[in-house]
Specification:
This protein has 31 helices and 23 strands. It is 39% helix and 15% strand. Strands 16, 17, 18, 19, 20, 21 and 22 form a seven-stranded antiparallel β-sheet that branches. The protein has a five-stranded mixed β-sheet with strand order 8-5-9-11-10, sandwiched between helices. Strands 13-12-14 form a three-stranded parallel β-sheet, with helices on one face.
Length: 874
């Protein structure tokens, strides 16, 4: 009876810590957690998750992770909606339940491992209140489900091993079924803890035989595999038929950039925790963990105290706790530092270059919960040991330990568990619900939303996901950073929106493209936080769509002007300054009818098609030129379509031999490459969607050089997006106003340029013209190493003379060569290995005597003209 009363007391205390702070954090506000559609229309998300194909998003798309919401999040929020519970209340119940499950699970685990008294409560609190939850709680709480279940999984493993019955293994599998469907990486990594327990129980404590450990592991694996088939099959379908999302999201270098052992021991290390946009930190709660001296001291004290307390105990599972910390830390650190990882990190680094499975498992920091659990158990075991020796000291140590872990989570008592930059009102603004009702009353076609949005950040709140798919009962297409649809449809949507983002769209192209994709209305969103992600200015975009050249119907407005003023500082540019004084802000939302809208399902005559020699950008340009009028079918020549009699062939300089980046909505396309030129140090974030899998360079636009066979660099432009105007060939084009530029906000050591000249040259010198710094912060390259035909290196100190018009003459023993290589050894700036705010560096010219200026031109696709005779190729 005493044990049962104590269990209820502990559960009650954990419940208070779980729910009360959450309900006091921004009451009435919904956090931008996981999937916005869980809060807008959970029933639709849940029923739709059963299908891996969603025709209503992205011109039709294979869904990403939706199937995981069949259990338990989808049903939970559906019930919340049916019962009329305010969504912000339902969300706090969900989050609090995750925390409570984590705490009670560790309490159950601790009992199975022999911890009683205050030590069990300390272990539960230390685990439940880890800052690890700050990475995910109000952004992607679905990732926390395996964290919440970890204690239960270990306890149930112990029970299954000791009793050897299938029913205990079935309970384990039931927990896996509840928490494993959304993110395979998270559940697979935390399952390392039960596996380690089986080894420990057989080898160290010897409470079970090795044969029993193997049999138990087999039962757990078999039953867990059976109950996971439903979501594993969905992952297979997504991987087989969907866009390779792994290639367009975070890379192994990104994930490993912050996962040091010190951060992992603090329960941190997830790269997103440390990121900033130009307005604020992505995770507001991260600031004190990196800037507050007292919290730094506290957060490092927690693992130190846990290990110290663990050393005072003779607990049989002390080595198990240490094993969890050790195994978890080694795995979580992963490929950090990426330039020189451990042996284990080197395997991750090498495998990630070509293995989809390795990419899927790149977020090895998801194993951090077992590190946190190991430390929590050690702390609890020490408190229990002190309590057994002298109860008063044990209770005091327990209270101090709980106080320490509470101090290590300031958000718990400052109202910050729900971040202010990730919330929106529980009730959507009236202009959105009114616009949705208006659009739903006009079915039969799609809604095209402009402009694209990096993430759902509106003037009235942050949703992460765009709002329209959760409100509309008709198909919707819009663009975000992560593409959806098929490669071809994503490419077309990207091409249209990038022209909108960069202000290069011919207004005459909008209606033909909208008709082509079956869009009957265009939804103009002017209530976005456009300053945050450098989106088009609402006044200018509204003017373009209302001008007669766009050919759209009159605007139907919803909501008053809502300029979404900048949060920290204004975004001044020539575009903003060019807006006439007194120009009004547009309405929050505007809907435009597309004249002559075409149906979603339609038949087109096969004769006289339009054949585009290009990609989606070519379609947009052809539309602007008036070539897509009427209802003629549009074919892509690179897709293998032949050119039938009567076809109109449209040659474009699109579908380039180039790669893409997906970290922003502009500057996505890299430099057009020379066929056969080497790729130096391919960036893992560079990925061109396989729009035309069987294409050859004859189907693409390629670069051709005169004066050199090729000029390439391991890096150019920006690390996030592409700026082809900084490409390497500019260093040989004889034009001092162009340059090969690279390295803004980052280190430059190791960056290299290689060129194969048109023929051998003989010289004993060359002249370096370094890129001049125009801004207030000056930075320059200080040393380079030159190689000629792979020969002995020549290391050169680059002096300020290279910044002068005459340049810096570099002399070396006379030699003949065709291949030239330059490697950057270092640059000024970067004190303390911090490169924030530093400008790019580079060379405007590398003048080699005997080498004429290298000129570049683009060769359009040749394959469509192959049947027209050799003369057509000129």
């Amino acid at each position: 009876m005493r044990r049962r009363r104590g269990d209820w007391t502990l559960t009650g205390a954990l419940a208070v810590l779980s729910y009360v702070p959450l309900f006091l954090s921004h009451p009435g506000q919904v956090a931008a957690d996981t999937k916005q559609y869980l809060y807008l229309d959970p029933g639709r998300l849940t029923t739709g998750a059963a299908s891996m194909w969603d025709p209503n998003v992205g011109l039709g798309t294979v869904t990403h992770q939706n199937i995981g919401y069949l259990l338990p999040m989808g049903p939970f929020y559906t019930v919340v909606s049916w019962l009329g519970i305010p969504m912000w209340v339902g969300q706090r119940i969900w989050m609090g339940t995750l925390m409570l499950a984590a705490g009670t699970g560790v309490a159950y685990c601790a009992r199975q491992l022999g911890l009683e008294g205050p030590g069990r409560a300390v272990a539960a609190a230390a685990y439940m209140l880890s800052p690890y939850i700050l990475d995910y709680l109000d952004r992607i709480s679905a990732i926390l489900m395996p964290w919440a279940a970890l204690g239960w999984l270990i306890g149930l493993t112990a029970t299954a091993a000791r009793h050897g019955r299938w029913r205990h293994a079935a309970r384990f599998a039931l927990v896996v079924a509840l928490v494993g469907g959304v993110n395979a990486t998270s559940i697979v990594l935390v399952l390392a803890a039960p596996a380690v327990w089986l080894v420990h129980a057989a080898v160290v404590t010897r409470e079970i035989r090795g044969r029993a450990a193997v049999a138990t592991g087999a039962r757990l694996a078999l039953l867990s595999g059976v109950v996971s088939v439903w979501w594993a099959a969905g992952l297979w379908v997504e991987g087989r038929y969907g866009i390779n999302i792994l290639r367009v999201t975070e890379t192994v270098p990104t994930v490993s950039s912050t996962s040091s052992a010190a951060e992992v021991m603090r329960g941190l290390g997830y790269w997103y925790f440390y990121g900033w946009d130009k307005v604020q930190a992505w995770t507001l709660q991260s600031l004190p963990y990196t800037q507050s001296v007292w919290l730094l001291a506290v957060s490092f004290s927690v693992p130190a105290v846990a290990v110290a307390l663990g050393l005072v105990t003779r607990w049989a599972y002390r080595s198990y706790g240490l094993a969890l910390v050790g195994v978890g830390t080694v795995v979580a650190v992963g490929a950090f530092p990426f330039s020189d990882p451990s042996a284990f990190g080197g395997v991750i680094k090498g495998a990630s270059a070509g293995s989809t499975l390795a990419l899927a498992m790149r977020s090895v920091d998801r194993i951090v919960p077992i590190v946190v659990l190991g430390l929590a158990l050690l702390m609890g075991s020490g408190v229990t040991a002190l309590h057994l020796r002298r109860p008063s000291i044990g209770w005091a140590a327990g209270a101090a330990s709980v106080g320490l872990v509470g101090a290590n989570l300031p958000a718990l008592w400052t109202g910050g568990l729900i971040a202010a930059n990730l919330i929106r009102p529980s009730t959507l603004p009236a202009h959105w619900t009114a616009a949705a009702a208006y659009l739903d009353a006009r079915p039969g076609s799609r809604v095209l939303a402009l402009p694209g949005e990096d993430f759902g950040a509106y003037a009235w709140g942050v949703t992460a996901d765009p709002v329209p798919p959760g409100l509309l009962d008709r198909p919707y297409v819009g663009r975000q950073v992560v593409p959806s649809g098929t490669p071809a449809s994503a490419n077309l949507v990207q091409a249209l929106d990038e022209a909108v983002q960069e202000g290069t769209l011919d207004p005459a192209a909008l209606v033909p493209v909208a008709r082509l994709i079956g869009a009957g209305q265009i939804l103009l969103q002017s209530d976005l936080q456009y300053e945050r992600y450098h989106l088009p200015l609402p006044q200018i975009l509204y003017d373009h769509l209302t001008a007669g050249g766009a050919g759209l119907g009159p605007a139907v407005s919803f909501g008053g002007p809502d300029p979404a003023r900048p949060i920290r500082y204004p975004l001044d540019s020539e575009l903003r300054l060019g807006i006439p004084t007194g120009t009004p802000d547009p309405p929050a939302l505007s809907v435009f009818d597309v004249p002559g809208a075409r149906g979603l399902v339609r038949a087109e005559a096969a004769g006289q098609p339009i054949v585009i020699a290009g990609d989606g950008a070519g379609v947009v340009e052809a539309a602007g030129a008036g070539l897509l009028s009427g209802d003629r079918p549009v074919l892509y020549s690179a897709a293998g379509d032949t050119v039938p009699p009567g076809a109109t062939v449209v040659l474009t300089d699109t579908n380039p031999l180039a790669t893409y980046r997906w970290g922003s909505l502009r500057d996505n396309v890299g430099e057009v490459q020379v066929p056969g030129a080497p790729l130096l140090d391919r960036n893992p974030s560079d990925y061109a969607l396989p729009v035309f899998p069987g294409e050859t360079t004859g189907d693409q636009t390629v670069a051709q050089l005169a004066g050199a066979e090729w000029v390439v660099a391991s890096r150019y432009g920006d690390s996030l997006s592409f700026t082809p105007e900084d490409r390497a060939v500019n260093a040989f084009d004889g034009d001092p106003t162009t340059a090969w530029g690279f390295g803004a906000h980052e280190a430059v050591a190791g960056v290299r340029l290689e060129a194969r000249l048109a023929g051998p040259v003989t010289t004993d010198h060359l002249v370096l013209h370094q890129l001049a710094q125009l801004g207030p912060i000056k930075r320059r390259i200080t040393s380079v190493t030159l190689r000629f035909d792979g020969g002995s290196p020549v290391t050169v100190a680059v002096t300020p003379q290279s910044l002068q018009d005459s340049g810096q003459t570099v002399r070396f023993p006379v030699r003949s060569f065709s291949d030239f290589q330059l490697t950057v050894n270092g640059a000024t700036g970067g004190a303390g290995k911090r490169y924030d705010g530093l400008p790019k560096v580079g060379f405007s010219e590398i003048a080699i005597p005997g080498v004429d200026a290298v000129t570049e031109s683009l060769r359009l696709p040749t394959e469509p003209l192959a049947g027209e005779g050799p003369a057509s190729l000129d």
